[in-house]
Each structure stands twice: as structure tokens, then as C-alpha cells.
Amino acid sequence: MARRITGRSHGDPRTADTRAKVKDDYRPSRDEILRYIAENPDRAGKRDIAKAFALRGDDRIWLKDILRDLQDEGVLTKERKKLARVGALPHVAVLDIFGRDGDGILLAHPAEAVGTGEPPVVSIRVSRSGNGPAPGIGDRVLAKTFPTNEATGPAYTGRVMKIFEKRSDAVLGVFRILQDGTFRIEPVERRQPELIVDKEFQNGARNGDLVEVEPARASRYGLPRAKVLNVLGSLTSEKAVSMIAIHAHDIPHIFPADVIAESEAVKPATMDHREDWRDLPLVTIDPADAKDHDDAVFATPDLDEKNPGGVVATVAIADVAAYIRYGTALDREALKRGNSVYFPDRVVPMLPERISNDLCSLREGQDRPALAVRMVFSAGGRKLRHSFHRVMMKSAAKLAYQQAQAAIDGVPDEKTGPILDTVLKPLWDAYAILKRGRDGRQPLELDLPERKILLKPDGTVDRVIVPERLDAHKLIEEFMIQANVAAAETLEAKKQALVYRVHDAPSLAKQESLREFLQTLGLSLARGAQMRPSQFNGILEGVRGADNEGLVNEVVLRSQSQAEYSPKNIGHFGLNLRRYAHFTSPIRRYADLIVHRGLIAALGLGPGGLTQDEEARLEDIGVLISATERRAMAAERDTVDRLIAAYLAERIDDRFDARISGVTKSGLFVQLPQYGADGFIPVSTLNGDYYIYDEAARSLFGERSGKGYQLADRVEVRLVEVAPMAGAMRFEMLTDPKPLPGSKRSFHKAKGRARASQSRPGFRGRRR
């Protein structure tokens, strides 16, 4: 048994960093390690733990084994090289303040579920100086959390970093005209009451319109009244559906008056502190419907005799830092939004149109300020050197992906014909060289096609397509990746603080889960502390063209960590890069604006550089913009779900080809490939057997027959219920269960695992 740390007993409020010196042969117990991790969430890496307990040499190897055992047992999880107790509240969390305790201290719950059981209570600490945020009951906040280790009372304390913007008094609802001619507002959220609208406050709304209303003070009798502020459109239109997501996720979508005024007062950039690159034939290559253009490219062979067969690739990015200065109204609003949000037929921009679509958009034939990087590559695709420049440029051509690709494929038009030999072919030659470097680097190569919703003029769904993946897309992507790498390398070399784009390797728990799944298919994934993307690529290549190709790609994707922003570099696992930062889209991502400011400051490129105040806030900024990115993704996904659900609401009882996109104890999630929409099949509706959930195989199988359903199976389903406002659909399974892959031995092992899970609370099998 491990000996106690000298001077530290259980319950001692001192941290491991302030305890007394320990003996050389001391090894902490598992409980002491877990307690340290709980008390020090921001210093819970392997090195931190070893240092805290003064472990050296063989003791560090022992610690590594103990930590791996704790992860394999499901006690610990690992994210971004930091360990945490499974089910513990993250060190930075979104909290909802729900009340006060007997001493008047604010109490909060996490906004998202953490583990199982009752949500933990967090005691909110407020700055006594009055300088920090001052939250109240009902606020949603971003806070750093710290475990209390107290037997009674809140499990955590929280220090508020930011109060999320409160919603206005306006609420959303559906305008309804009843048979007696009166007007009602049908709420889109369950907690909202139904409202009455008098005729003089109808404001042009028609039956079925989605409207924004201002409730009046409730009277003593009857339903409360309201007046219509804005008609957002028909309930079936995309604009209305996206507005629901905007409100549901608290996405700022209206620029304040001072932000608009500030943007209108901005003067175009001048040649001060700039090189004149207006004669360089840079071109923009974007989607055909793009409204702003923040990147332009050019390439030419390297004439240096020391670099035979090499190329010089140039990327110019809109100089947003020339217009958005730290601390201004424009800057504060951009940080609050974090990024632009893209819906099928609507964009909620990070910056006002005057900035994003005018002054910073690299328009064809117009002078525009830019921050450019010139990169030299060897014939093998290795970057030899690069340099950054603050320039004034003039785009030689605005091209669409399909237009540029067609020219390369032998079908130039009036615009691409004159620049085919001088601009486009050198770009493709450079891409061929950069691709050699990419192939040598071996980033993660998942094959999961992205779908795009096409709308009719009335805003309803026309069809869902999978756009063709062209070399033109890959060219721009690789040029941007290399520019992002160059930005991170330059800032590191100059010892300038920055926000990295980081992507951690899969946690050991996820690796083990993936390994168990692959074993059910007769595939193996080697164990090792240093996982590499090439190991996943080997698995993916082995199933290319096989029936289970889609299944394996989907499961490998789900095993990956989530990318985020941080001033602490842990590399980018998916791209297999040691350092990476977002530099190429400052019009739509605040992270890129931070990187631009860092380059300007580090290289002495004039005004608009990163300030000391910003440097001090980079950790908090990284947390904020990571949260806004996740918020945008959720809003975009919800909008697509609602659109498709509304579109299919008229097709109850129709049959559809589907693919199983998720397997849980309670049933199967299915996706309609032709629409990209998801629905659910409850396990209680699967007839003919008693279905058991096998987590490792991502399947439900019949106890008697051994047949069942597995992730990525292609099946036929019937639509039985639709809730358009919730974006939810319920289906009935029409396809018979099939024998699942694997030997009888693996089947009985899965059955044993499933029976073990039945003994745990929460199992919800059904016999039919």
C-alpha cells in the first residue's frame, strides 16, 4: 500500500504543488492520483502528475502504466493530453444559473448532460472587486470549474468568464387564424404559452407564418396578448426554419447600431506599410454562389538553380486586421459571434456586409489590401522556406471551382482561356508537387461525402446532392493548409503568442472501442502510445470497395477527437502536422484575425497588430471561439433536420431506402441517403426476437436467432411520424435482420457482454 505524503492527509486543503518534500521511494496510491487530477484539472497531464508526486526514472514508467490502467477501466478519460475523471465536469463549461443557496450564493447546473444521474451543482464565485462579469439567476455563462471535494454542498465552484447574451423579450411562434376569425400564436417551444393577437397588431402576418412577437403583460383572466414584430416567412420556408435555429442556439444575428455605424465610417486601406503586388495575376477560386472572396492564389516555377523542379506558391488573404482593430465595437461583435454561420440559403456573417462583402472581399479588378505568404517547395513537395508580406493586390479573375476545372480539362471559356497557360496550368503543376508532400505526410483520409441541400425559389427543399469533389477543390485546400502551417511556424519562430488549431489523437478509451469493433470484422488495429493517421489509413484502404467501407469510415470518424482553438500547441492529428493555425479565412473566423494580428506585430508590418491585452486573453478567446464553432455546427445541423422533416411531412407511410447511422440500447438511427436526414426506429418496434445491444460491434442482435442490424447497414424503412418543428422523424423497419459478421465465438462473446450490460441500470432491451 502506498504511504501517505508527509504533512498531507485526506481532506488537507493544500494542493500537491505545495505539499512537503516526499521520500525518494514514494509511489502514490490510485486514490491519491485520482484526487490530484480532480483538484488540478488544468495541470493533469502525465508530466504534471509525475512532477507533483516527485516521480523519476522507473517511477514515471510505473505512473504511465497506472494511468493507462485507469483509462482502460473507464475511470479516467483523456482530452488534449489532460486526464479527467469520467463523468467529471469539464474545467471550462457552459452553466445555467438556476437559483441561490441560503447564503445568497448563485447556484448553477451544466447546460449539457455530464455522465449519468443528477447533474452536479456548481457554486458561482463573483469577483469582489466588481470588475468581472456579474451574472444573475436565469443567465447562461461560460465558467472555469473547480471541484470542492466537500462531502456536502455543491460539487464544484465556478469562476465566470463570460455571460452569454440574453434573449430579448421577443419570442417565436406560428401565426394561426382560428375558425372564429381570431388570431393566435402557437409557440415553437413547449414552455411558451399560447398568445392572442388583436387585429391591429397583426402586422401583415398570414396563417402559417413564423413570426417574432412581443408578449404583453399577462392579464388576470384569459390568455396573454402579443403584437407581431416581424414576419419571418412561411413555416415551410428555409428562412423561417433557420431563424428557429438562430434563436434556439442564441446566435447573434442583428448587428447593433454602433457596429453598423463603425463599419460605414471605415475608409479604404491605403498603400502605407504595403508592397505593391497589383501586377501579380492572383486569382480567386470559390463556389459559384460565393458572395465574399478572402483568398487568392498564384504559382510559378522556381527559377533558382539550387531547386530544380521546384515551385513558388503564393497565397494572399484579405487584410481584415486593417479594418477591425482590437477593442472597437466591430471587434467586440466579431468575437461574440466567433465565426459566420452558414445555412442552406442564409448566412449569419461574423462581420457586417460593408466589411465582408466590400472592403475585404478580393473583388476582381479592384485594389484590395492583403496579407500574403510566398512559399518555396522542392520538387518532392517539401517546403524549403516562406515569407510574409503586407500588400495591395488586384485579383486578375474571379473563378468558380467548376469553371477552373473545366479549363484544365480542355474546355476553357472567355475568362479562363486567356489565363490558362500563364495562371491556371502553373497552379495545377504546383498542386501536383504539393500533393507529393501531402502523400508523404499521410494525413487522415476519410471518405465521407458531404451533401448539399438545393432549395426551390420558395425556400423549400428541391433535392439533396453530393457535389463532385474536383482537383480544383483539393488544390485550394492544400494551398490553404500550407499557408496555415507557414503562419504557425513564423509566429513560433518569432516567439509570438497565437491561437493554434489543435486536434488531439483519439483517447485510449476511443482507441480501444474502435479496436473491439474492428475485431468483429476480422480487422486489427495495433496498440501503441503514439497513434498515427497512417494506421487508420491502412484500415480504410483495406476495406476500400468492400460492403463495409462506409461502416468502417463512419466508425473511424467517430473515434476521432474534436478540433478546437488553443494557445497551447498539441499539434493537429488529422492533418498529421506538428503546428497548425487558421490564417486563411479572417472574414468568417475570429481565430484567423488573431493570427493576422500576431503576424503583423511579430514582423513589424504596420498598425493593427496583436496587443498585450489580447495576448493575456488568448486562452479565454480560444475557449470562446471553440464554443461558437460548436454552436454554429449544431444550428446548421438542426436547420437541415427541420427542413427535411417539413419536406417529408406529406409522405407519411412512404417507403425509403436508408442506412443505419447510429445504434443504441433504445433503438436504431437511420439516415435517408437521398436527403441526408436522420430518423429513429425504437427497439420496441423491432419484431420477432429479443434484441440485445452490442456496443463493440455497433449492433442490435436477436437473442434467439443471432441475426440483427449493424451500423451502416442498408435497409428499407417506412415513415410513420414527423415532428417538423423538432426536426424529428420516426420510422418502421421493413428489412429483415441479417446474420452479423464474425464467428460463433465472437457472437457468444458479444452476447455475454450484452447480458452483463443488462445487469447494469439503464438497459432497455425489448422482446417482440
TrEMBL record:
Keywords: Cytoplasm, Exonuclease, Hydrolase, Nuclease, RNA-binding. The gene is rnr. Residues 9-26 have a biased composition (Basic and acidic residues). Its EC number is 3.1.13.1. Its main location: cytoplasm. The keyword Acetylation does not apply. This is Ribonuclease R. It holds the Pfam family CSD2. It comes from Mesorhizobium sangaii.
